[in-house]
Structure formats: C-alpha cells, structure tokens
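Handoff note, outgoing to incoming analyst
You'll be picking up this chain. Sequence as last confirmed:
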Amino acid sequence: MARMRRIRAVLACTVALWAAQATLAAALTNANALDRFLTGLNTLSAPFTQTVTDSHGEPIGAGSGRLWVQRPGKFRWDYEPQQAAGASSAGQRGQRGQLLVADGKNLWFYDRELEQVTVKPVEAALSSTPIVLLSGSTAQLHDAFEISASGAHDGLEWVEVKPRSAEADFTHATLGFAADRLTRMVVNDRLGQTVELDFSHVERNARIDADELKFQPPAGVDVIGTPQS
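Most recent structure output, in case you need it:
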C-alpha cells in the first residue's frame, strides 16, 4: 500500500512537471519575438551600422558602432559617424561621435565633438532611448511600453513598441528578428527622423568587461546635470 502511494506520488510529480514544461513552451510560442529574445538573456554584445533619414526619407547621416548590454539596467552604446569623403583623417575615434552609458544609477551622454556630457538618473533611459528595450526587465518594459507583434516582412519577424509616456524622445520603434536573433531596429523620433540600426554577430551571454559599463567624464569637458551617487 505504501509502495503504491509512492508510485502515485512520483506519477503526480511527473505529470505536474510535464504540465509546467508544456505551459512554458506554449507561453514562449505565443510570446512575441522580443519576449522570446529576452528570455534567458543576461548580456549582449553586437556591432551595428546606423543610417538616419529625415522626414522626407532623405539620408542625413550614417555611421557604425558597438552595443554592450548587461541586464538589468546597464548598457553602453558607442557610435562614430561615417567620415565624409575628402575629410581630414585627424578625426579619430575618441574625438568624434557619441557615447551613451547607463551604469545602473546614471544615464550618461557624451558628445565627443562638442566636448559635452549630459547626465540624468538612469530612470530617464526609459524615455530617452529604445536601447532600454534590450536592457530593462520584462516587467519594466511592459509597464513603460506598448509591445505588440506586427507580422513578418523582409524576411524578419517584427515587433512594434510604443512608449506609454508622452515625454519619450521617440514615437515608436520596430525590432526585426530572424530565427529569434535580433537583426534590425528602426526608431522614429519626434522630429520625424528615422534611425535604422542593423546588428551583426550578436553575442548572447558573453563576458563583458565591467569597465565598459562605467563612465568618467574626461577632463575639461562640460558636464550638465548632477550624477546620482
């Protein structure tokens, strides 16, 4: 009798485990591509190219850079504009482009050419940049954004994201995935400009040097704002 009870208990546990696995599998199947991509994601590292067009679709800028993400709440976005033909080679990385760093407490924006740094509390990242879509927790994202699947085209599965806050710097963004790999992000800002980021060689859960997610304003630059300590 005792043996039969043990067998029933084992069978009950097995059925419960199978049901839980089936529920999880169904949830992941029904989730949008962004939710699936973020499942199990701790860190991310990827080079990208960027193009910017104005409200008439005319190109106004291009460049490349690299993105590092450590969830939750930390990232580094380092961008260098493409050098115009015939321009002086004196403008090397470190003197051109922009750097955006969320270190867990502060959001730093460094414009190298202007030699100016702006710092805000890290919560400002929710309305300042769609990069937070990759660094925030799933609960944070669904609280701050309307997220919905938007079908497949151009060989990618797309997810549309709209900030819930009217103060956000962008109106909406779409993220394109190929086999659950992030491939493209298209951002529409409030000036009517469109920024397209194309990612390649995305590394999931690779080690990221802690120094990449820290920022110290260079000597001599103007700093606007007070960092949180």
